[in-house]
Structure to design on (1306 residues):
């Protein structure tokens, strides 16, 4: 039985439709991320699972039990759903200590005091806050607050853990560290988790499965590799990871090999591949977009032979520490290319670029 | 013979002229001085509309004097005056209020300006101290009744009628501890052989409600909150009836206490000449008639007309306090304490 | 960010040892004499004069036998005499009791109203947001007078309805009772609680309540365990404000308390000063007692709020959860309507009714209705005319001066690193903990003996208003300033503009809405303040609230009603304009 089943939920706010019949499932122990830009509906979906929003249509079941059904008008209030949630602002209650914050749910459930103490202390230790129990909530740093929020949501052994952009208020270094800790914690406890974020790097790093949303709909689901390597739409390829987008007309299209030759307005000829199950129809003479990832483009100082060889001139060179990012002008298109830090470049900046057709996605 | 007569006549004429000349010279000096001062400030306790009317009439007569009235209750005026005298920053020229003992006290302290206006001749000694103060009016303390609420059968005719059981919880009266007029009333009735402390005690059994200020009391009687005020200055009757209120004034059989309202010039007046002209005016026949008309009280002038009030009897029976102002002042604490004790009024908060 | 240090001079001086010491002194002076430092010093001096000097004179005066400049010895006799008199003791007890009760009731009403408009689906919430604020701006003392017309035990309007229309034998309501006093106090001070608590409820991070719901606690439990505790700083702050206001109030206890011989400190002080000779030392002792009580309460509140800055951040734009009330919606709606009726409609209706009467009457007789009283107070009565003029002058001048002074103080406190700024902040907020009547007595003491003609003039009132309302002004300007990032000024300085120029060209224009609102609110306070004016006025410097009280004392009810209506209309216009100027969509945001 899946941990969560969402079937066709919709939500309208006045004239605006936030969710259009969204459906997906979350398996037990899975960490699923809802990924998308602001306004895509990911937070609304999360809040619908939590019971903080009531959808207008559809059904939500948690561990097989309906918590919401538009058909028979049932709605289980949030306090009965047995969930845990970490909010973007952490929502640590300022008038309580750390201990009281974490113990809150257990107290509500009238768990005996000794057991509360045991479980709270264990959970605090688990999130790296051992000994912090008596600290007043107002004297916590951002990172500490986040851990308290985490502890609070885990101590009750929730059916599902919901996380609403929990790392976005932390600074970069801390964010990276917390990412790893979160993932390890989740795996160790085996708790089902639904994670919401707009940060695709975070989504790729953490998730077992990613659900990409845009405009209230799911545009693609799958694990990180698949979404990254087989983006099915222009939106996904641009949102998840970096991509250079070259628009043009399809000159040739081979249905069997799924190979396409695309010619851009500036005369750039690109040979690429249509991903499996991509949306939209590709046809000769139709418009399409070639997506080239910066790391898939090679820079060479001499001319080469083969498909996808372009003359280009370096217009910008940024040192990133572990790599270099070059901007090159090729037939009027500006391409972003990632190269090794030591990559040599000629003084006049004229180079040749190559890319494997298999690595270039052609999307409608 | 004829030459003797004509010489005598001429001599008389000459004497008359010389006698008249200095008087006219003084008048002229006062006029010139007033013209230079250009302003007059009167501290008065009489009703605002009446004070305004008097000031307007005065200003009409002497257009170069800007007459200003500062109206406050008599006790407030007294306090203010004392404070100003103490600080030597007196801003008023003439003071007019109902507390006679204060006026005499001011005179004793030398704070009044002596001015011998010929008008003093028309005032009986009880109501004037020539050169210093005179009464601009004498009010009677009467009973004010709401004629809509009280039918003819229950209409009181005497002070004693107010002690009847009908009047229980229907009366109001001044706070006699704080009100000057109220205290005068107490002294007068307590010392009258027909009334006395027995009357005071009996009245207390009807539990009159203590209010502050006749104007408010009159309004409340008119509104019907109380059926009658057991002690009220007569001019309030006129004022409120003019506004259309259903009220009647009762001059009780036993008589009424009289209360003179006195006007006097302050020695430290900033505009003494204007003040002199003002005293001339208010004490004149013209001025007194105006007062009677505006205030509805009796004038102290022997030749003044009576107010046009239907219920006022032609001959006023007076309740005489039998104590002079100074004596009344001395026994004040004792009287107030006795009154409070008879009426069961404690010193602390009521509820 | 502080003033740019004149670095170059310091460097040079270290090179030229010959002139080193002289130069260094010059540099120090120059650094010290920056425009900001001068302004700060001037502001500090003004605050010392306006705030500290009167309070010091008061404290000293309370332990002397006579006014300053007159011979006298140090003594505790004033306090001994004060406490020896049972009437005075009763007054002190009454003050604390009535203020405390009023605070409690105001808290209940205010919190309930705030909760109903912020957290439920009661109909008409937007309307009530505006309506609940109005009683705060209207004069509470006029409301008290109006309530004596409504609930007069003999013939009050409401009582008449019971006895005449409904056939009751006895009138059920008696305004002249402790209940009546507390009722009126609470009625007109609950908007303070409402404003604070509703503001806190609406700026609270909704996630705090949602987290509670997720983790197993239902709506009621969440309200009790999370919502109320988180807004408790707002509750305590507003409770303190209500208590201080109630304890320092003159008008309401004078109108309701005096007729029933229930005195409080403010009325005793006023009565004492009305004696001849005025009981100055008794007033001073009373004032110090009240000040001591207030200070204790302020300290307690500071302790309670010490570590609890519950500044919360709103999250993603989701509003806090609304509790659906079901059928209770209409009950809560009725309660809110009842509050509006009791605080605005009934009292001001009674006043309007009375203003059209030729004499006080509770009878419904349209034939006798007239506008003569309005004509009288607007055109004929020199006292009302003078009072209106004085009030307008004081309001306009006072508000302007206070706003700019407050701006300077806020600026120095928030934007400079001058060490004196803490002191400045403290002195500027000190009057907030001093009840109005205490301040009035202190000012009276401070100026009555000075040969300078301030006491008894309109300047005395101006000084009193400004000094007492500086904290009010500072609160408004600080909030406005806090919303403008310092970077805007910094970039102006970097472009070469002087400090004064920056103020003129950048800061003041940006602050204009906040300044305008602050100005208007101060104007409203100034024209309706009775407690400050009643002890310091003279017939020349008479102001509107004093004349209203005077009309009340002389029982001229219709004229009083007409004049009060005029004043109320002025206030209403002022806050309407404020709302427009600041482009707010509800009166609630005028804080």
């Amino acid at each position: 039985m899946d941990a969560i089943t969402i079937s066709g939920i919709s939500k309208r706010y006045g004239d605006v439709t936030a969710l259009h019949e969204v459906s997906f499932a979350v398996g037990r122990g899975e960490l699923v991320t809802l990924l998308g830009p602001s306004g895509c509906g990911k937070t609304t979906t999360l809040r619908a699972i939590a019971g903080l929003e009531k959808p207008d249509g559809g059904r939500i079941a948690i561990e097989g039990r309906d918590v919401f059904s538009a058909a028979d008008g049932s709605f289980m209030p949030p306090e009965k759903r047995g969930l845990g949630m970490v909010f973007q602002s952490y929502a640590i209650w300022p008038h309580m200590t750390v201990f009281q914050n974490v113990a809150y749910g257990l107290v509500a459930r009238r768990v005996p005091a000794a057991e509360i103490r045991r479980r709270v202390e264990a959970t605090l230790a688990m999130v790296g806050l051992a000994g912090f129990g008596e600290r007043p909530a107002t004297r916590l740093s951002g990172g500490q607050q986040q851990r308290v929020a985490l502890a609070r949501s885990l101590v009750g052994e929730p059916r599902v853990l919901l996380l609403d952009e929990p790392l976005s208020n932390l600074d970069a270094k801390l964010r990276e560290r917390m990412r790893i800790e979160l993932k390890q914690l989740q795996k160790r406890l085996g708790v089902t988790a639904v994670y919401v974020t707009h940060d695709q790097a975070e989504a790729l790093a953490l998730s077992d499965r990613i659900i990409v949303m845009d405009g209230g709909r799911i545009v693609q689901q799958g694990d990180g590799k698949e979404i990254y390597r087989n983006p099915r739409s222009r939106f996904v390829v641009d949102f998840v990871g970096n991509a250079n987008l070259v628009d043009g007309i399809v000159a040739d299209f081979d249905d069997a090999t799924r190979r396409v030759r695309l010619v851009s307005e500036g005369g750039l000829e690109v040979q690429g591949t249509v991903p499996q199950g991509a949306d939209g129809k590709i046809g000769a003479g139709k418009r399409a977009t070639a997506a080239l990832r910066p790391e898939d483009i090679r820079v060479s100082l001499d001319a080469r032979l083969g498909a996808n060889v372009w003359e280009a001139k370096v217009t910008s060179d940024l040192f990133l520490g572990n790599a270099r990012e070059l901007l090159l002008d090729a037939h009027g298109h500006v391409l972003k290319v990632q190269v090794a830090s030591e990559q040599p470049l000629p003084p006049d900046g004229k180079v040749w670029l190559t890319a494997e057709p298999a690595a270039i996605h052609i999307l409608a | 013979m004829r030459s003797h007569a004509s010489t005598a006549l001429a001599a008389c004429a000459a004497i008359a002229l010389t006698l008249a000349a200095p008087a006219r010279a003084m008048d002229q000096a006062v006029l010139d001085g007033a013209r230079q001062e250009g302003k007059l400030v009167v501290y008065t306790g009489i009703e605002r509309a009446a004070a305004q009317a008097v000031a307007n009439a005065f200003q009409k007569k002497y257009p170069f004097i800007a007459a200003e009235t500062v109206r406050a209750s008599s006790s407030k005026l007294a306090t203010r005056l004392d404070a100003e005298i103490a600080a030597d920053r007196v801003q008023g020229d003439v003071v007019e209020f109902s507390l006679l003992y204060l006026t005499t006290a001011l005179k004793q302290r030398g704070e009044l300006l002596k001015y011998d206006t010929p008008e003093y001749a028309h005032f009986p000694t009880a109501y004037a101290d020539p050169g210093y103060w005179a009464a601009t009016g004498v009010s009677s303390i009467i009973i004010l009744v709401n004629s809509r609420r009280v039918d003819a059968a229950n209409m009181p005719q005497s002070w004693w009628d107010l002690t009847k059981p009908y009047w229980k919880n229907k009366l109001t009266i001044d706070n006699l501890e704080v009100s000057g007029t109220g205290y005068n009333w107490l002294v007068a009735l307590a010392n009258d052989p027909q009334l006395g402390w027995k009357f005071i005690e009996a009245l207390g059994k009807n539990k009159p409600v203590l209010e502050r200020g006749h104007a408010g009391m009159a309004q409340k009687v008119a509104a019907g909150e109380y059926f009658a005020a057991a002690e009220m200055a007569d001019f309030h009757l006129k004022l409120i009836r003019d506004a259309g209120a259903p009220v009647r004034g009762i001059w009780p059989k036993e008589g009424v206490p009289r209360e003179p309202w006195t006007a006097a010039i302050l020695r430290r007046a900033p505009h003494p000449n204007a003040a002199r002209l003002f005293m001339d005016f208010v004490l004149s026949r013209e001025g007194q008639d105006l007062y009677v008309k505006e205030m509805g009280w009796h004038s102290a002038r022997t030749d003044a007309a009576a107010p046009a009030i239907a219920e006022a009897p032609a001959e006023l029976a007076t309740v005489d306090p039998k104590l002079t102002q100074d004596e009344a002042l001395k026994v004040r604490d004792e009287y107030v304490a006795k009154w409070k004790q008879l009426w069961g009024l404690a010193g602390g908060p009521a509820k | 960010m502080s003033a740019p240090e004149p670095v170059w001079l310091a460097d040079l001086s270290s090179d030229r040892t010959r002139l080193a010491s002289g130069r260094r002194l010059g540099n120090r002076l120059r650094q010290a004499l920056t425009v900001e430092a001068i302004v700060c010093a001037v502001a500090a001096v003004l605050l010392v004069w306006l705030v500290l000097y009167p309070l010091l004179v008061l404290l000293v005066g309370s332990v002397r036998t006579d006014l300053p400049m007159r011979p006298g010895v140090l003594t505790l006799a004033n306090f001994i005499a004060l406490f020896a008199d049972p009437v005075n003791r009763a007054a002190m007890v009454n003050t604390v009791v009535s203020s405390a009760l009023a605070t409690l009731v105001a808290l209940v009403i205010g919190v309930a109203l705030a909760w109903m408009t912020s957290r439920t689906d009661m109909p008409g919430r937007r309307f009530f947001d505006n309506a609940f604020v109005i009683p705060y701006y209207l004069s509470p003392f006029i409301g008290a007078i109006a309530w004596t017309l409504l609930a007069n035990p003999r013939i009050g309007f409401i009582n008449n309805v019971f006895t005449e229309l409904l056939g009751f034998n006895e009138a059920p309501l008696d305004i002249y009772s402790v209940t009546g006093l507390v009722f009126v106090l609470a009625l007109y001070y609950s908007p303070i609680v409402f404003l604070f608590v509703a503001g806190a409820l609406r700026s609270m991070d909704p996630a705090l309540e949602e987290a509670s719901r997720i983790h197993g606690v239902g709506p009621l439990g969440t309200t009790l365990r999370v919502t109320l505790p988180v807004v408790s700083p707002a509750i305590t702050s507003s409770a303190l404000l209500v208590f201080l206001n109630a304890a320092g109030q003159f008008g309401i206890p004078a109108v309701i308390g005096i007729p029933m011989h229930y005195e409080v400190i403010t009325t005793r002080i006023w009565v004492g000063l009305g004696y001849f000779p005025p009981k100055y030392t008794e007033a001073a002792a009373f004032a110090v007692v009240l000040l001591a009580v207030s200070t204790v309460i302020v300290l307690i509140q500071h302790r309670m709020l010490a570590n609890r800055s519950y500044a919360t951040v709103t999250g993603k734009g989701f509003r806090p959860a609304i509790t659906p009330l079901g059928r209770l919606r209409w009950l809560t709606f009725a309660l809110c309507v009842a509050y509006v009726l009791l605080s605005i409609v009934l009292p001001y209706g009674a006043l309007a009714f009375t203003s059209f009467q030729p004499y006080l009457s509770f009878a419904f007789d349209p034939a006798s209705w007239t506008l003569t009283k309005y004509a009288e107070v607007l055109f004929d009565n020199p006292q009302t005319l003078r009072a209106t003029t004085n009030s307008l002058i004081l309001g306009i001048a006072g508000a302007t001066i206070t706003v700019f002074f407050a701006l300077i103080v806020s600026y120095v406190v928030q934007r400079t690193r001058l060490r004196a700024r803490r002191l400045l902040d403290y002195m500027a907020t000190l009057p907030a903990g001093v009840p109005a009547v205490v301040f009035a007595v202190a000012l009276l003491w401070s100026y009555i003996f000075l040969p300078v003609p301030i006491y008894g003039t309109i300047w005395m009132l101006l000084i009193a208003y400004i000094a007492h309302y500086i904290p009010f002004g500072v609160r408004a300007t600080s909030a406005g300033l806090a919303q403008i990032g310092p970077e805007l000024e910094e970039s102006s300085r970097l472009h070469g503009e002087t400090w004064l120029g920056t103020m003129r060209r950048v800061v003041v224009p940006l602050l204009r809405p906040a300044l305008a609102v602050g100005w208007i609110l101060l104007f409203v306070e100034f024209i309706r303040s009775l407690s400050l004016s009643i002890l310091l006025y003279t017939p020349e410097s008479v102001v509107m609230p004093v004349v209203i009280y005077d009309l009340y004392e002389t029982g001229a009810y219709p004229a009083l009603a007409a004049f009060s209506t005029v004043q109320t209309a002025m206030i209403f216009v002022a806050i309407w304009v404020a709302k427009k100027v600041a482009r707010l969509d509800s009166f609630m945001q005028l804080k």
Summary: Chain A touches chain C through 33 residues (CB under 8 Å). The CA atoms of residues 271 and 307 of chain A lie 7 Å apart.
